[in-house]
Amino acid sequence: MIFSEEFKIQSKDIGKENYIKNRGILEILENIATHHSDLVGYGPNDIEKNGITWILLDWKLRVKKRPKYGTILKVNTWGRTINGEIKKTYTYRDFEIYDEDNNLCIIATSKWVLINISTGRLIKIDENIISKYEIENKKVFYNAELDKISIPENFSNEIGYKVSRRDIDLNEHMHNLYYLDLAYEALPEEVYKRRPFNDIRIQYKREIKVGESITCRYTLYNGKHIVTICNKNNMVCAIVCLN
Question: Distance between CA 44 and CA 60 in Å, rounded?
């Protein structure tokens, strides 16, 4: 099932020269994914009843043409197979964003797991859930699987941050969009000025909770700008790759 909605680019979504920011794009994608889950009975209002919640593991975003403020976007999303197969431990969700002239502007994919809210453990995605989402075979990237991002051994810049209550989402973790904000803060000024970046990967490895102190470490690695976000025990919580 391909689920579609229209979104108008708001002032909060724009950055340089009134073009939509990457954060604004991810917020739109997050919203339409949630609205799709609302429709099939697995949205935020259904968490307590079902006893389960979706957790995001990975984003991959590519901007082909960056729309400006005021543009009405047509956004499509769907759950998809992985190389023609339906997995029971994780799933992928793809996205397309078109402008008013029906130009394909943005593509994205994401990886998700289901968590039992009582135990915090992964649970299998059963046939009932799969049937409600009506999984598609369509994919937006040639390489359908999201490979792991290599963690650099050396870093040229770092910042520290203490997680605030404002950063926390409905699952009581730091909201997934704020990892991108932190990565931008860790960029050297000359790199930050090159934004917007048209290829984004965010890989989430460990939850971050309120009050935690984290370190964001930057390096230029294989021609890409990598920010590794670590907790106080030096364990990697997320990796952000910008290009």
Answer: 23
